[in-house]
């Protein structure tokens, strides 16, 4: 992830599965969100998912100094809306994040987030309709800025976004 003021270059070759020519212009991102058709690293976890029409929300972040302004909510609203439309036609969205008790653990939170968050990622996603389906110990190797590797749990969450009961 880029530092607060580090510029990156536009290299995206597609947007909404439509080909585009990257501008190569430099900019400072406010965050990132990815909608992926696969999560190869999670395939061995026996998440009991149906085949097809499943997409993963990955690498989602909003820069800490601008959190709480509705940008994350707007990004999730848009990615969920895009997922159900052509050409993706998603029925299930999946994501993973740090388990809420780990995220609130003072020593870990100070070392990795700069403090205990007001709301955990897991709670935020739960309020958006995602439900916990599995917890995995040390799924990610979490290393802080000082090189300490933390013992953490990752939660896998699911949201059914299309079908007879989805509105």
- The helix content, as a percent range, equals 10-25%
Give the total of domains: 1
The whole-angstrom Rg is 17 Å
Strand order, sheet with most strands: 5-6-7-11-8
CATH architecture: 3-Layer(aba) Sandwich
InterPro entries: Acyl_CoA_acyltransferase, GNAT_dom
GO molecular function, one term: acyltransferase activity, transferring groups other than amino-acyl groups
Pfam family, one: Acetyltransf_1
Organism: Penicillium antarcticum
Describe this entry's structure for a reader.
The chain has 167 residues and is an alpha+beta fold. It has one domain (34-160): Aminopeptidase. The protein is 20% helix and 29% strand. It has helices at 71-84, 100-104, 106-112, 121-127, and strands at 8-9, 14-15, 18-19, 26-27, 31-36, 54-62, 92-98, 131-137, 142-143, 149-150, 153-160. The strands form four sheets. A five-stranded mixed sheet has the order 5-6-7-11-8. A two-stranded antiparallel ribbon has the order 1-4. It has a two-stranded antiparallel ribbon with strand order 2-3. The longest helix is centred in the middle third of the chain and has 14 residues, at 71-84. It is globular, with a radius of gyration of 17 Å. The termini are far apart. The model has no long low-confidence stretch (mean pLDDT 91). It holds the Pfam family Acetyltransf_1. One of its GO terms (molecular function) is acyltransferase activity, transferring groups other than amino-acyl groups. It comes from Penicillium antarcticum. InterPro entries: Acyl_CoA_acyltransferase, GNAT_dom.
């Amino acid at each position: 992830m880029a530092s607060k003021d580090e510029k990156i270059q536009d290299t995206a070759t597609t947007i909404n599965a439509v080909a585009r020519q990257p501008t190569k212009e430099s900019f400072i991102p406010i965050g990132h969100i990815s909608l992926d058709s696969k999560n190869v690293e999670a395939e061995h976890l026996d998440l009991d998912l149906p085949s097809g029409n499943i997409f993963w929300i990955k690498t989602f972040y909003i820069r800490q100094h601008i959190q709480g302004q509705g940008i994350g909510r707007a990004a999730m609203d848009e990615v969920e809306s895009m997922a159900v439309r052509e050409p993706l036609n998603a029925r299930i969205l999946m994501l993973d994040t740090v388990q809420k008790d780990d995220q609130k653990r003072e020593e870990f939170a100070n070392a990795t987030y700069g403090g205990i968050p007001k709301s955990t990622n897991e709670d935020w996603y739960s309020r958006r309709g995602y439900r916990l389906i599995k917890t995995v110990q040390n799924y990610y190797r979490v290393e802080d800025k000082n090189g300490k590797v933390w013992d953490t749990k990752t939660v896998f969450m699911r949201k059914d976004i299309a079908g007879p009961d989805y509105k």
